[in-house]
Amino acid sequence: MKVIPYGGAKTVTGSCYYVEVRDLKLLIDCGLFQGLEEEKNYKPLPFDPKEIDYLILTHAHIDHCGRIPLLVKEGFRGKVICTEPTEKLARLMLLDASKVMYEHYKNALRKLPRTGKVPNPPLYEEYDVLEAMEYFKIRLPYYQEMNLSRGVSLMFRDSGHILGSAFVELMVYDEDKKHKRVIFSGDLGNKRKPIVNDPDKPSQADYVFMEGTYGDRNHKSFEESKQELLEAIEYAIGRGGNVIIPSYALERAQELLFVLREFYEEGRLPKCEIFLDSPLAISITRLFTSHPEYYDRETYRIFLERNPFELPNLHFTKEVEESKAINSITSGAIIIAGSGMLNGGRVLHHLKHNLWREECALVFVGFQPAGTLGRRIIEGAESIKIFGEDIAVRAKVYTINGFSSHADQSGLLEWLSFTGKPERVFLVHGEEEKLQVLSKAVQENLGFKTHIPGFGEVLEL
Fold first, then answer.
1. Which residue, of 366, 386, 403, is where some domain finishes?
2. pTM of the predicted structure, to 2 decimals
3. Hey, which of 200, 236, 444, 449 has its CA 20 to 30 A from 345?
4. pLDDT tens, 78-91?
């Protein structure tokens, strides 16, 4: 077997692993690059899409599925394999991505006379997304082994990251039916979170490709993080301000609604109005209610009695005019809006109206990659540019990492400990300095050999 990382190598974006085993050619994920890596999206694909037999999709986050329409445009005619929720979520995520790309392109063209910068055209359009969805041929449930070719099979297990997410176990058999197992973790979830199950234990493996987004640290507990969120809300609402929460539309927005509903039912939520200001997050929230079979026990029990994502003072603002109207509210509002990394979307308008106000709170509940506006604020920027205007950062900034849907170092080590004694653990999907810390922890705590592969490095297994 040969594996080549063409994304997610010493970075958290653009996940894409090319796999050759005998005469079979596979991709594990094909995601968009974001932040400082964004220009890589416009470079030629480093493999021939026409030769790929299967694309195995671990989950629907855009850094794992975002280049699939481009792959089809370039000639991919194989089959996409994923769980049922992943297919439905990917459709929503990719349609939204095509819309965002087009809007960015139009805006850049308008600025061309002033900037002199010719923008890159969109990687794909809505038509290309709909075309790409035709190749989502196989919905594979968890724990069902599927033969990909003679002597090569695949199984999904629940990675506990988002609804329908999976890690991949590839089995390669010889003529005596002995096999080697290679595991690709996808993104592993943070334990004891609402809505989804904790990650499954992996099987014993010969090789493991494991993500390390938070490989250098441990999260605060989810209960502590919920308390931090409540403190941020009390801070801003108590001072006559608003709470702005940049949020990923998929999973994070639904977790926030789940927790705010809990606060409301417990009588702990201050008097306020809550706005989910993201058409994508609204659609995804509705899709979540159509797949309760993927919930954990607690959420499923609640679902049998009531919608776990609804509360009386919640407003879904799908239309642009509804979103604009929020900016006339100077106090008592919790605004959940995209994008989660502040690289576009409605949240920028809300920041423009609130970030300079000391009585407001800006709450980050997701990872902010290097090069993003969110990372600059977290690192202490005194002002930022929004729509060409300098805006002072005076709102109180909270960074709450316990909401992360990624496992922390202790969670990664625990998950990895169930893989037996692999010959090698390849650490991927993390910034290099974080992977170095994780590598040392794996060697010291588990005694496993590790390697941090680079982009395009050929790994012979």
1. 403
2. 0.94
3. 236
4. 999 999 999 999 99
